[in-house]
Specification:
Blueprint: E1 6-11, H1 18-29, E2 34-40, E3 45-50, H2 54-63, E4 71-78, H3 83-94, E5 99-105, E6 110-115, H4 122-131, E7 135-137, H5 145-178, H6 193-211, H7 213-224, H8 230-250, H9 266-290, H10 292-299, E8 304-309, E9 312-317, E10 326-329, E11 338-344, E12 346-349, H11 351-354, E13 360-362, E14 367-368, E15 373-374, E16 379-385, H12 391-404, H13 411-438, H14 443-457, H15 460-480, E17 483-485, H16 488-494, E18 499-503, H17 504-508, E19 514-518, H18 522-532, H19 538-550, E20 557-563, E21 567-572, E22 575-580, H20 582-588, H21 596-604, E23 608-614, E24 617-625, H22 632-641, E25 645-649, H23 654-664, E26 668-670, H24 678-687, E27 692-696, H25 702-707, E28 710-714, E29 727-729, H26 735-770, H27 774-777, H28 783-802
Parallel strand pairs: 18-25, 18-27, 25-26, 27-28, 28-29
Antiparallel strand pairs: 1-3, 2-3, 4-6, 4-7, 5-6, 8-9, 10-16, 11-14, 11-16, 12-13, 12-15, 17-29, 19-24, 20-21, 21-22, 22-23, 23-24
Helix pairs in contact: 3-13, 5-6, 5-9, 6-8, 6-9, 7-8, 8-9, 8-14, 9-28, 12-15, 13-14, 14-26, 14-28, 15-26, 15-28, 16-26, 18-19, 22-26, 26-28
Length: about 800
């Protein structure tokens, strides 16, 4: 409890009347230490004065049945080196009143913080993170998290390379001096033992203090705040070897045992720093490859746009483009922002959205998306979305959020990492004293070397990188295939799915009616289509579109009557036309006996049958249907081959549903379901123990998508509602559902491999470094080998994650 009085204001959502605000006010007044409470229904805010905390106010509002809205912000963090750093920064964020959640990603070096506005500011967050030895960076409006993270990674890469090069040269020179006699160089010039040691000291001192400063700065910053990280282990280990060697030089009498002079270990100190720096260099380079997908997405957007200003074409920066501007795009150019084609036509490469290499035809009225490529013709379009509102910006944001998220599988690693460094220091200290007290001669030498080996070989980095690197590559690979995964939890659940429920309309079918059959001749078809021109019914639109496609010559409509629920009556070029149901024909006294069999056949195929009559004679039957997508059958077969049960959910009648299911090979259907009841059907499946994915258009199916274990929105890139699902498929292809699940399985398998390696590495090698096997087999691990193993462990984890780049769907 905070004993200092304060006035705190928090926003509240869900209040609709005076009784709501009264309920909240009463709950807040019940808190200990509250002196005064005011709840404003108009501004939807509550203000309290007293010795309460933000967190206690949030809990009280929630207990009253209302929510406190939060916002999310992403920041960069400098100074992160291992999983222990991640755990420490996350804890610091969570200690700030008003912070609801915080996730720190070691691979991208950024933090996503969810907090209550008005109670938390950047300066509060920055001050807290500065206190524990890290640096929090705010992202400016013209930057992205990946821009800054990549900039920092490249800067660090250059710095490491410079230090590694100089350190490597000095360590090689030290080894030459060490083995001067063995290399036969004493025949050129003889170097006495003591001088040899001093030369080693001279060569390694810059390595220890300047090259190793990369580790020492971070370790010192941690120490000042009573904490430790991976760099602490390196610093303590190398300085132990260096100071020991320096004392051997300055006070050799301290270490002489049984008449044998003590050895120096400058080479050990320098080699450890260079080898671990080499590991960090390789890891840093590999990490750059893990974020290639997001950099490609960011790079898709051109820097300028050609707009029409005062009847002239002018090139301006993307930041200057406004909604409503007319933009000109020439062949081969990238489309700068989202919009609607105003003039001209072209084929547009939308592979960045959908993964499909074939060009998409664009004509006036069609939508275009920023970042896609104009292949052939020139056209003008009116901008509708700019900046962060464009589809590309939303995709980038979504992928970045996914890359920063943690699946539940990572929690165990996080818990261990939070105590890893102190435990390792404890093991190393215990090792030192056991060897010093009970080890062979010279005991201090053995104690020191094993102490250093334990510190150096322990690798919290591998633990910290095991999950985020795999997620970065996996989500990036998904984006390349038009699959956007919202977060780590949905990624993990997706690999457990055993049931996939498809909405029919727009998901398995094309979502709009088309003409499939006509039993009459083209002349009568032209008359029928002419009559339908004046109708606004969706089926009439499909019939007219069919006429345009067949390039039929249409007649003049002289009169038109729409008979609600029955059909139409019209006069075309003086001829009386009727089109519609059996009832319409019966009422007109038209004999349709010869066409009944055809009508029934079409209806049994889940098609709408329309009978047409010209001048009182039935001339043919037209069939209209929402046809199945050509990819649907293959998509269903893929899922069934993966051992996943497929169910079709639809509001259509049983006959239509069964006809579609038969075409697709779906065994289980749930028909005649109202949109509001779809979520209940999902709930029933879950109650039977199923792990369920719901696949829908992301708009009409929102409740069912939210209810499912994994909601999958399927669309065509521009019209898909990305915010309503856990996974978004940017192309309207049901085969992508199987690919998304396969990618999830591959990513989770990769994470498990990384975690196994990270745990196994530490569990096996720390005891070896401590000398556990020495009494039985006489085996000890040199600190230099320990440094090599430690450097390679992180590289191994990142390299394994990079194997996901080779993912190919079955």
């Amino acid at each position: 409890m905070n004993n200092n009085q304060a006035t705190i204001t928090i926003p509240i959502s869900g209040m609709s009347c005076a009784s709501c605000s009264g309920r909240v006010e009463k709950k807040l007044k019940s808190l200990d230490g509250v002196i005064k409470v005011s709840v404003n229904l108009t501004t939807a805010k509550a203000t309290a004065t007293g010795a309460m905390t933000v967190d206690s106010m949030l809990a009280a509002v929630k207990e009253a049945g209302y929510e406190v809205p939060t916002i999310s912000a992403t920041y960069t963090i400098q100074g992160l080196s291992c999983a222990s750093c991640v755990g420490r920064t996350e804890k610091a964020f969570h200690d700030i009143p008003g912070v609801a959640n915080a996730q720190v990603n070691l691979a991208t070096r950024k933090a996503t913080v969810k907090f209550v506005p008005d109670t938390v500011s950047f300066s509060i967050l920055q001050e807290k993170i500065d206190e524990i030895g890290f640096k929090l960076g705010e992202i400016r409006g013209d930057e992205t998290p990946k821009d800054l993270a990549e900039e920092e990674r490249l800067q660090e890469h250059r710095e490491i390379k410079k230090r590694l090069t100089i350190g490597g040269i000095l360590v090689v020179a030290t080894f030459i001096i060490m083995h001067w006699q063995n290399l036969g160089l004493d025949s050129i010039i003889e170097i006495p033992r003591q001088l040899n040691y001093w030369l080693q000291c001279l060569l390694i001192s810059p390595v220890q203090f300047w090259v190793g400063r990369y580790f020492h700065q971070s370790a010192w910053a941690m120490a000042k705040h009573g904490s430790a990280n991976m760099h602490t282990l390196v610093t303590v280990g190398t300085f132990s070897a260096y100071i020991y060697s320096l004392l051997v030089l300055l006070v050799p009498s301290l270490f002489i045992a049984k008449g044998v002079a003590a050895e120096v270990y400058f080479d050990t100190s320098g080699s450890i720093i260079v080898l671990i720096l080499l590991g960090r260099f390789l890891e840093n380079r590999a990490k750059g490859r893990t974020s290639q997908a997001i950099r490609k997405l960011i790079g898709l957007s051109p820097k300028t746009a050609r707009v029409i200003k005062s009847k002239k074409e002018v090139d301006i920066s993307l930041a200057e483009v406004l909604v409503g501007d007319i933009v000109v795009v020439r062949p081969g150019e990238k489309i700068p922002v989202d919009g609607v084609v105003k003039e001209g036509s072209s084929l547009v490469d939308e592979s960045m959205l959908t993964g499909e290499p074939l060009g998409v035809s664009k004509k006036p009225g069609d939508e275009v998306v920023g970042g896609t490529i104009n292949n052939s013709g020139s056209f003008k379009f009116t901008t509708t979305k700019i900046g962060n509102d464009t589809v590309l910006a939303q995709i980038v944001t979504m992928v970045q959020q996914a890359q920063g998220a943690k699946p539940p599988i990572a929690r165990l690693a996080d818990k261990i990492a939070s105590v890893f460094v102190p435990v390792v220091i404890g093991i190393a200290t215990t090792t030192f004293f056991i060897w010093w007290l009970f080890g062979p001669e010279p005991p201090l030498t053995y104690a020191l070397l094993n102490f250093v080996s334990v510190l150096i070989i322990a690798c919290p980095c591998a633990l910290g990188l095991a999950t985020p690197t795999s997620i970065m590559v996996g989500t990036g690979k998904g984006a390349e295939n038009g699959i956007l995964i919202r977060g780590g939890e949905s990624l993990e659940i997706a690999h457990k799915l055993d049931t996939v429920v498809f909405d029919k309309t727009g998901t398995l079918t094309k979502g709009k009616p088309v003409v499939t059959d006509w039993s009459g001749d083209d002349d009568n078809l032209a008359i029928l289509i002419s009559a339908e021109k004046n109708s606004e019914h969706p089926i009439a639109e499909a019939i007219v579109a069919h006429g345009v496609e067949k390039k039929l010559s249409l007649g003049k409509v002289e009169s038109f009557i729409a008979n609600s629920g029955k059909g139409i009556t019209a006069t075309v070029d003086g001829r009386r036309v009727l089109a519609g149901t059996r009832l319409l024909m019966d009422e007109a006294g038209i004999d349709i006996t010869m066409h009944l069999e055809t009508m029934t056949k079409f209806e049994n195929q889940a098609k709408t049958a329309i009978i047409a009559a010209v001048d009182g004679i039935a001339v043919g039957v037209l069939a209209v249907a929402d046809t199945v997508k050509k990819e649907s059958k293959e998509g269903i077969d893929k899922l069934k081959n993966m051992g996943i049960e497929v169910i079709m959910l639809t509001g259509d009648n049983q006959r239509t549903a069964h006809a579609i299911a038969e075409q697709l090979g779906i065994d289980k259907i749930v028909a005649e379901v109202l949109p509001t009841n779809k979520s209940e059907e999902i709930e029933l499946l879950q109650a039977s123990g199923k792990v369920v994915a719901m696949v829908g258009d992301g708009i009409n199916d929102a409740p069912a998508l939210a209810r499912a274990d994994v909601g999958i929105a399927i669309g065509t890139g521009t019209d898909v509602a990305m915010e309503s699902a856990d996974i978004t498929l940017m192309r309207g292809d049901p085969r992508s559902v199987a690919i998304a699940i396969q990618l999830s399985r591959a990513t989770i398998t990769n994470i498990k491999q990384n975690l196994f390696w990270a745990f196994a590495y530490n569990i096996i090698l720390i005891p070896l470094a401590a000398g556990v096997w020495f009494p039985l087999f006489g085996v000890l691990l040199s600190p230099i080998f320990a440094a090599s193993a430690m450097g390679l462990s992180s590289v191994t984890v990142v390299s394994n994650a990079l194997r996901l780049k080779n993912f190919k769907p079955n």
